[in-house]
Amino acid sequence: MAVGESRFPVMPTIEGLRLGSAMAGIKKPDRRDLVVIEVPEGARVAGTFTRNAFCAAPVIVAREHLAACTARAAAPRYLVINTGNANAGTGEAGLRDAHATCAELARLAGVAEESVLPFSTGVIGEPLPMERLLGGLPAAIAALDDGAEAWRLAGEGILTTDTRPKGASVTVELGEQSVTINGIAKGSGMIQPNMATMLAYVATDADIEQPLLDSLLGETVERSFNCITVDGDTSTNDACLLIATGRGARVVDEEQVAVFRNGLQRVMTELAQAIVRDAEGATKFVTLQVSEATSREEALAVAFTVAHSPLVKTAFYASDANWGRILAAVGRAPVAKFDVGRVTIDLGNVRLVENGGRAPGYTEEAGSEVMACEEIRVRIGLGRGGESATVWTSDLSHDYVSINADYRS
Amino acid sequence: MAVGESRFPVMPTIEGLRLGSAMAGIKKPDRRDLVVIEVPEGARVAGTFTRNAFCAAPVIVAREHLAACTARAAAPRYLVINTGNANAGTGEAGLRDAHATCAELARLAGVAEESVLPFSTGVIGEPLPMERLLGGLPAAIAALDDGAEAWRLAGEGILTTDTRPKGASVTVELGEQSVTINGIAKGSGMIQPNMATMLAYVATDADIEQPLLDSLLGETVERSFNCITVDGDTSTNDACLLIATGRGARVVDEEQVAVFRNGLQRVMTELAQAIVRDAEGATKFVTLQVSEATSREEALAVAFTVAHSPLVKTAFYASDANWGRILAAVGRAPVAKFDVGRVTIDLGNVRLVENGGRAPGYTEEAGSEVMACEEIRVRIGLGRGGESATVWTSDLSHDYVSINADYRS
């Protein structure tokens, strides 16, 4: 199940950036489960990783290798991603396997081991099936290509419980030149801010200095992947990588940065929303906008309290305009000296709550009409200040329970 | 559905304390939905209430009336509890209704209005059906009695989605004299620390000074009702009242206080656990013990992070020893400078995790055997200090979704 139409864009080529994938039989036969991304020399790469204290072995190695490359002003040359096994909770053996994966790809490609970043997603706590994984590398390398089909197959090759591949592409004009930004992502469960069971690879042909690339990644992730939640669970394996090949237009001055940031944010937000639309068991896509807060952190705290409430989520599933549950969730958010008499709650364009209770003009019919939609917007005004935040989430359905009670993810 | 056997004890009489209930038709006909508790003169009463900023009208009025009584060294004489309607999110009209309920009972009983404390539980945001509620008061008053049957009917009369009444009774010996502690509670959904959709009334014949009574209530609630969670949602209406009639043994010196506190804690914990056992859709009763923390707060934070994880809860439902999900939840808990290499996780007597990964001796069979039980104990050692905490929770089942998608609670 998923909310709305699937649409994997026809990705324009980003010169020098090639993707190859293969079926290595890591968990199941006949499943595309191994992806190699080749980054051209001279590119720059920024990365952000899970904040879960139990981070997976590939996260530790990818962070180290990325830091080592960046320290000598070089970029990683290869990313290798397997699905079907997260190589998490695997201790020392897991670290050895992550290193061995990098070493083998480095040997086949003729680069240094630290030029390869490993990524894994799938079941936690089982050893990586190294023979099958390493055995699949030659096929993935042989498939390396910069065309739209290679992007689409790479989008497929990183999925776990996702029901469809997720891609986004934007072209922005920088003066005379245009710059392309392509991205693919995966994620469906164990999704919450601070990077979830979520992998995203975004590439552009723009030419961007490393410090700017790092800050652009941080800023745009903060308002996209870090603003989604399905179940409040942060995974051990999350990563988002931003690759700038540097072969296209330079992004330097303030105006260029603003235009590029805007395009990058669109790609990041579209990918993040695609994850929520494909959330495990999702039947609704919910946008929670909290405004009139004293800080963005406060607005986020209220939005996530509502987004994580199982009672609110089951009400969305039931298309039940149960505003009492939303009100109760807002009321328990960690906000100091909260004057609930100033709070307003709107469901779509229907005012639900004001002056601490049900809005006078509210009718059950009007609320139910909004709730029946697949896409629902809830606006919460706190009446305290001028800051705001938006969070996207899904509902809690029978299918969510089925998927997570049946699937060993 | 509920976990384990139901057992409503035969409550001993607490002299002077009487309970009466009636079917007032507040939401449904033929349902016991109105309870009056009569407190004898000379008693002392302590109360603790929801910390939800949107607290319901009866909570506001009960708090005010209790404070007014306590200020003049008197105790409330009547508690009136209705189910079927929470009188929450009802603004000024809700406050008027709560006052009117107190006024009518005060008139019928011949006491001052502030001697009556009102409590409501049920659907949020609908006006109290005052005619039916007030119309039911004479029958509830006429039924006032101090016998075991009155306790049992009162236990029934406060339920909402609960599948069974919850009662606990303990008798402790204070030197030559024995003291009785009886309690009833309700709660099944919208359950989380800091008082949930939970009402509890505990009475004793002990003679206890007000400051001691207040602190005993706070201490024992902290380690019982504030250590349970079903869905992480704090309700707008929670309350726990502790009544000491003062007709029995005095509780003054250190040893007496220790004995009494111990008995009171047993009643509170038994009631709190009964709520989790009867949690909406529950098929498992899970005890989470976190030890070796630097503070109790840290231990609680880890325990609640695990207890609130939908992925962990669905794994319990599936009887799936998915230790990767427990490990991932521990890893995202808000703990500073967390060395996950020192963490141990045990499921029953089976070691799941040590040294940052799966314990060497662990087998899937051993884990599955523990997971198949209705009652499951998870012990998490943080390897950081000497503090600990215990939290009780339930699983997340299909029935949880059904109950909350179908029932307008």
From TrEMBL, chains A, B:
GO terms for cellular component: cytoplasm. It is an enzyme of class 2 (transferase). It is found in: Cytoplasm. The record marks A196, T197 as: Cleavage. Substrate binds at T160, K186, T197, E280, N404, S409. One of its GO terms (biological process) is ornithine biosynthetic process. HAMAP family: ArgJ. Heterotetramer of two alpha and two beta chains. This is Arginine biosynthesis bifunctional protein ArgJ. It comes from Billgrantia gudaonensis. The gene is argJ.
